[in-house]
Specification:
The structure is a homodimer of 361-residue chains. By secondary structure, chain A is of the alpha/beta class. Chain A is built from 9 helices and 15 strands. Helices cover 31% and strands 25% of the residues of chain A.
Chain lengths: 361, 361
């Protein structure tokens, strides 16, 4: 067996092999938060790349604290005529889980507008152990481009600096995304098992619909906690979507659902609260105990949501259908790959748009 | 910035979080190669998990040497009535690239037959730094099951032991896969950017068609090298498929294609040689130089293949179409995610079956 060094050699070689620093380019760096940082459910956090100010909101467990500081769902909008784009990062916490690609956990995902649509441009993992800048793309023509750069889903960023070549323009791009639609959810909403940050279903839905989605996905920790309800109550949102039945047990769903709805409705009496059924976990296929526990969660959610819709105004329930390739789209028995997230985003699109339309959104 | 320890803490926490060792189970382990190891293009390698005997075949570069020793495309077939399955591994080389999931690079992917079809059962990354066994699945009923366990795509395995609970059966499963179809290819065939070992397009094609695919994918190193032709010449195969235009430049394709075909036809005059066009790389979207270099490769391949089909018997050319979601399926500008590999496998299925049919396969 090789020593611990090998893992780092492999990592280093991996990073190096993907590097493509163009010769003789002098980059000028600008802090991304000074451009247009979109996707934040709460503005005004002292660290602009934190989703929640963990000094202001209390009650989070250590892992929840870590997660709400991660930049999942955030993106920077800018315009540039630079032929190359580079990033300099300072990481706080970062994650290396083997069920998600490094590019998604610790990396960047660049889209550029082409013919009116966001088109994939480049994606690369950052190396938290190195100060070397990360060249995302080079060799572009010098026309001004509209860029959207997704930040890492499972890293806390102290600083993200966008580098363009000396003499090139770099300007804030006004957001073309409409409204403020918050999503509170589990690992599934967080984007675990994606290949890159832009492939979580909220980000896919955002590109597809033009709606601004504000992602408060927290891996394993979406349990309708009252302190998360505090955050959501304070958020300036036009609608809220919940992936609320993935993490809690059936009993917890029973205990927490109605108080959670009531707390949020007190703050947001007139906006739609859209609950989604949880995913079918492929770990159910050959384990009867897992199967029945998961089914109990789904049954509890379906039963209570039927009641909630009668009991409360503005409450909705969506049951997504991820289609015939669902079994093949599992990464680890719980989370789907990009393919499954695409199927999910497409499945919820019409029902969500139909609901939002009722509210003039 | 956190210290190097963090990365290992994160890895460890990641592994621990996914562990689910059932209490009080005593596992009995059997070396996987003593069961039914399928997918090898050459039999009789001293290490059964090596695809090529690198003492016998000479000329490989260091990275090629490493890659042909990796277990990409290999799977173990067995039957068991154990309620839980565990794996004990000894790793040689292993890879940690951020553009492929750890589960695929260093992990295992278990399918079990259900209603006559292979159904996803479980998948987990191994930890090369730990001797602890990896529990893949537990809590199954005690009926005898037909299992297919894919091995890591980018690790050299010294030993892979399958563990079942004491008293349970563990037997060799005869392969239901037909014929011996070799594939020589690039990273794309190797399975880079997959989420788990069973999601490379050759493995998807194998499950979908029932054909046995023998995967000689070598990341970055499929360049129609004469020493790879030696390996392919010695292989006992009914057909060969080539992803031969992804790694070489246009000039290299020109120089090497016909001699490569001739060398292989000398050994296998009567079997179909099926060449596939290379993938559209999403790195082309905004880089005109990359775009034109890639197009030159594709044009060279298409032009020469037209000539090759006239010049040689039994030579074929397939141009896959990965459909409308191709742009979204890129992981890193070069490799697609599972979604893109699924589209590729589906696109080549009919043309390949049509060709094989001519040969009674």
């Amino acid at each position: 067996m090789k020593s611990i060094t090998t893992i780092f050699l492999a990592l280093t070689v991996g990073f190096a092999a993907m590097a493509q620093t163009p010769g003789n380019v002098k980059y000028v760096y600008t802090e991304a938060s000074g451009l247009n940082l979109i996707g934040k459910i709460l503005e005004g956090t002292p660290n602009p790349y934190h989703r929640v100010d963990t000094c202001r909101y209390k009650g989070f467990t250590q892992s929840e604290n870590t997660q709400v500081r991660c930049s999942a769902g955030l993106a920077v909008l800018f315009k540039t005529n630079s032929s190359t784009i580079s990033v300099k990062s300072e990481y706080g916490y970062y994650n290396n889980a083997p069920n998600t690609m490094g590019i998604s956990l610790r990396g960047y995902d660049l889209y550029i507008k082409k013919d009116g649509k966001w088109l994939y441009a480049a994606s690369r993992a950052g190396n938290p152990e190195s100060d070397a800048p990360l060249v995302l793309i080079s060799g572009m023509d010098r026309s001004e481009k509209e860029c959207m750069l997704y930040l890492p889903i499972y890293s806390e960023m102290y600083s993200v600096k966008i580098g363009v070549e000396e003499g090139a323009t770099l300007d804030r791009l006004e957001s073309p995304f409409r409204h403020r639609i918050g999503i509170f959810g589990s690992s599934y909403t967080h984007g675990i098992s994606t290949s890159r940050p832009g492939m979580s279903y909220p980000m896919q839905l955002m590109r597809d619909t033009g709606l601004q989605i504000l992602n408060l996905g927290c891996n394993g920790n979406c349990k309708m906690q009252p302190y998360f309800a505090d955050v959501l109550a304070d958020a300036d949102v036009d609608a809220l979507i919940f992936d609320a039945f993935s993490n809690p047990s059936a009993d917890m769903i029973k205990e927490r659902l109605f108080p959670f709805i009531e707390k949020i409705q007190k703050a947001h009496p007139d906006i739609p609260l859209i609950f989604m059924q949880t995913i079918y976990r492929e770990a159910r296929n050959f384990n009867p105990v897992t199967d029945s526990l998961e089914q109990a969660k789904m049954d509890m959610a379906a039963g209570l949501m039927k009641e909630a819709i009668r009991k409360y105004d503005n409450v909705y329930f969506i049951v997504p259908d991820t289609g015939k390739d669902a079994h093949e789209s599992s990464v680890d028995g719980t989370h789907p790959s990009d393919m499954g997230y695409m199927a999910w985003a497409r499945s919820i699109k019409k029902p969500i748009l139909r609901i939002l339309k009722k509210y003039g959104l």
